[in-house]
Design brief:
heterodimer, A: about 270 residues, mainly alpha, 2 domains, 2 strands, B: about 525 residues, D-Maltodextrin-Binding Protein, domain 2, four-stranded antiparallel β-sheet, 19 helices, elongated
Chain lengths: ~270, ~525
């Protein structure tokens, strides 16, 4: 019994250590930071509720919250629609099906910064591929990333493209689980293919859809690398996300809490 | 080092040749008096609390600094000087092992020659910027130094790759992994490094103080002094910006290079072109980026502002200084440019320079770009530079260029601040400065540079660099303020709202920015 207990602890030890060091400790540490004035370098001092008060009065913070929700409002529905559509198509007998599945999954494993740089070229106003195509069919080029009303949607489309392969896998798994008998039954009733999708596939994929909504929302709240690389939060701070706000305050302004210099008086 | 040699007095390096501090008992004698005996001096062997405490304090300070402590056992050679008048110009010291040290009085203060003994050499780590030209320069200078100084060996390690020098160095401070010396420190970083106690003051160390006196003057140092009057990073090189223009494009439009902001706007109007006839402009006079990353304002608003501000910067002594006509005029010019479609309201593909490929005819840029143009090897592009245009009626003598000054810092984690200061002085010697110009097309922060015959050949190696050199002393850097990055971010917002998108009048945008900057200053 004791030996069994010991081996049990040994088996969980690696993951438990990881969890304590990289999840529990940072969470506790971050909570403590809320109540401190600290710039990482000098000695921290107790701040009480100063930081929270500062945050609630910071218009940039609320702008960042608003922007993040704008991003989610575009990204989440688009993510569901594209992932579902692709999954349905890829679930059919299709030439080179394995190739297509791999191809759509590829962007998921590419680094976010690389994708951002790639799409920066696609979105470039002067010689970008998207605008070149628009001009060829007789339309005006669009300054995708430098127009305040198109920048965030452009980023949302890009993020959707990057992640779609992951959600396609989730939906494909769901599609495999739809019992054959149900399909046969609805076909016997004479349903059209739209009706089959609307009244059979979609309801039975509800658990997967909930998962996709949850994961893409969590992912969306972490929006950072794309605006950081592509727009720096502009134009007019329309792509300034919550994480970018945190990053700028921490690493550009060294504001881990407004801190009063101890040894130095800056006039 | 001088502190160590001086403190040697307590241990016998004095006219009497007697250890005044008795190591066995810890007491210290009162002093050395002149005397009529053969040696001319006599030790006063009274040892009260006063002399003992003073000596212990001094020795404690000196032994606390490894550099100074090394020299505690050095002894002067030759006759002792008993009066100021008989102090020789040169004094040689012998140290442990075979070590020899020679101090020599000269025009810049004291020069030091050292021949080390058999003890292990000091190793210093030096981080230069990671660009190829500066790494090459750093390697060459370090190799030369290492050959000349067996006792202090320098190891060159390019700054670790990261977003910016600032972030890399701050991360290094937090991780306590700073090098002994780093170049490429900007003023934006300096104030924070000092506040964090991360760097060594340099204007009171012998080697760097002498070099500062040789290289600069008080007017050049004044804006770099911190609130306590100290210089905490050695001002190494500067990049005064000028208006670079494509000679053919301007001549083709029948234009002379613009001298005022009015002429600049006129030039923008006459240079905008639609070459492929699709109804959209594809050639412009200039390009001001739409990016709002703080340092992007170094190439549009800030130089245009400094050209007319008479040397006024953004903040000084905790007060906002940019709510003035020069700022209004600079923003109005940009606003007109964007509103009339004279400045492209778009971004260009990455990795493409619109000036180099002739898409834009002018660009506000520093001398480092001269080397880049040289490397791009653009066929048939002739360029020249003029001062950044100021508003109408600004006296040419009052035009200042924006210059991103880069300094060399010695970090307080170093165990050998004096050796590091000596290496800093070596990196900024006349010879090293000449190499900086030749290798990197960059300008040392050195007084009288453009007229100095020692640099004439090096400067003329690069097109337009001689003109850039005339602005070395007529330039303004970033304010040495711990919040300067955020202040530039706030100005970027004014630039977007007031100029790029024209959402609010320029004065209103500036007033809003000024209020925001006041809030930032008040919060600290």
């Amino acid at each position: 019994m004791r030996a069994e207990e010991r081996s049990g602890w040994m088996l969980v030890a690696p993951y438990a250590t990881f969890l304590l060091a990289f999840a529990a400790y940072p969470i506790v540490f971050a909570l403590a930071l809320v109540f401190l004035h600290w710039d990482l370098v000098t000695t921290p001092t107790f701040a009480g509720l100063d930081n929270i008060q500062l945050l609630t009065h910071d218009t940039r913070f609320w702008r960042a919250v608003g922007n993040t929700f704008v991003f989610l409002a575009i990204h989440v529905p688009l993510q569901i629609a594209t992932a579902l559509a692709l999954a349905v198509v890829l679930n059919r007998p299709l030439a080179f099906r394995a190739f297509w599945r791999a191809a759509f999954f590829l962007p998921v494993v590419i680094s976010g910064a690389v994708v951002a740089i790639l799409w920066n070229s696609l979105y470039a106003t002067d010689v970008g591929l998207i605008n070149t195509l628009l001009v060829r069919i007789g339309l005006q080029p669009v300054p995708w990333l430098t127009n305040p009303s198109t920048a965030m949607p452009a980023i949302a489309v890009m993020v959707t493209w990057k992640n779609v392969g992951f959600y396609v896998i989730i939906y494909l798994a769901g599609l495999q689980y739809i019992p054959r008998s149900c399909k046969e039954a609805i076909e016997m009733e004479g349903a059209t293919s739209w009706q089959r999708f609307r009244f059979l596939t979609l309801p039975l994929l509800l658990p997967q859809t909930i998962l996709v909504v949850m994961l893409s929302t969590i992912n969306g709240f972490q929006l950072f690398i794309e605006p950081y690389v592509m727009t720096g939060g502009g134009p007019l701070r329309r792509t300034y996300s919550i994480v970018l706000y945190l990053y700028t305050n921490a690493f550009s302004y060294q504001r881990w809490g407004t801190q009063r210099p101890l040894a130095w008086h800056w006039p | 080092m001088l502190a160590g040699v001086t403190a040697g007095w307590f241990l016998g390096a004095n006219a009497a040749g007697v250890a005044m501090y008795e190591e066995a008992s810890g007491r210290t004698f009162d002093g050395i008096d002149s005397d009529t005996s053969a040696t001319g001096v006599k030790v006063n062997r009274n040892a009260g609390a006063e002399s003992t405490i003073e000596a212990l304090l001094a020795l404690q300070a000196v032994t606390g600094d490894p550099d100074a402590a090394r020299y505690l056992r050095f002894r002067p050679m030759g006759e002792a000087a008993v009066s100021l008048a008989s102090v020789p110009l040169t004094r040689e010291y012998s140290g442990p092992g075979e070590a020899r040290l020679t101090l020599r009085r000269d025009s810049s203060g004291v020069s030091i020659d050292e021949v080390s003994g058999p003890d292990a050499p000091i190793t210093l780590t030096y981080w230069p910027a990671a660009n190829p030209a500066e790494v090459r320069l750093a390697n060459r200078l370090a190799a030369r130094w290492n050959a000349e100084h067996a006792d202090v060996q320098v190891r060159v390690q390019p700054l670790p790759a990261g977003r910016s020098t600032e972030e890399v160095l701050l991360a290094a401070i937090v991780a306590r992994a700073t090098p002994d010396i780093s170049s490429n420190v900007s003023s934006a970083l300096l104030a924070r490094l000092v506040r964090a106690g991360g760097v060594v003051r340099l204007d009171d160390r012998v080697a760097t103080a002498a070099r500062l006196a040789e290289r600069t003057n008080s007017a050049m140092l004044a804006p770099l002094r911190l609130p306590d009057g100290g210089i905490y990073a050695f001002p190494w090189k500067t990049n005064p910006e000028m208006l670079m223009y494509n000679v053919e494009l301007l001549a083709g439009a029948g234009l002379a290079p613009p001298r005022t902001q009015g002429e600049l706007l006129d030039a923008l109007r006459r240079l905008v072109r639609d070459t492929d006839g699709d109804g959209r402009a594809d050639r412009w006079g200039m390009w001001a980026t739409l990016k709002t990353t703080w340092y992007e304002r170094f190439y549009d608003f800030y130089p245009l502002y400094l050209a007319g501000s008479g040397g006024e910067t953004l903040v000084r002594d905790g007060a906002v200084r940019f709510e003035n006509e020069a700022a209004v005029q600079a923003l109005e010019l940009l606003r007109a440019g964007f509103a009339e479609g004279l400045l492209p309201k778009s971004n260009f593909a990455l990795g493409r320079d619109p000036f180099a490929d002739g898409t834009v005819a002018m660009k506000i840029i520093g001398p480092w770009f001269v080397k880049e143009m040289d490397e791009l090897k653009v066929q048939g592009l002739t360029y020249d530079v003029v001062p950044v245009p100021a508003a109408e009626g600004v006296d040419p003598g009052q035009r200042f260029a924006f210059a991103d000054l880069r300094s060399i810092a010695v970090f307080s984690t170093t165990r050998h601040p004096d050796a590091a200061a000596r290496f800093v002085a070596y990196l900024t010697s006349p010879d090293a400065d000449r190499m900086l110009i030749e290798e990197a097309s960059q300008l040392p922060y050195r007084r009288g540079l453009s007229a100095d015959s020692r640099y004439r050949r090096a400067l003329s190696r690069w097109p337009t660099l001689t003109e850039y050199a005339t602005y070395v002393e007529q330039s303004r850097d970033l304010d040495v303020d711990p919040d300067v990055v955020e202040i530039f971010d706030v100005l970027s917002e004014a630039y977007e709202e007031g100029a790029v998108f024209g959402l609010v009048p320029v004065r209103e945008a500036l007033a809003k920015a000024a209020a925001e900057v006041r809030r930032i200053i008040d919060a600290r």
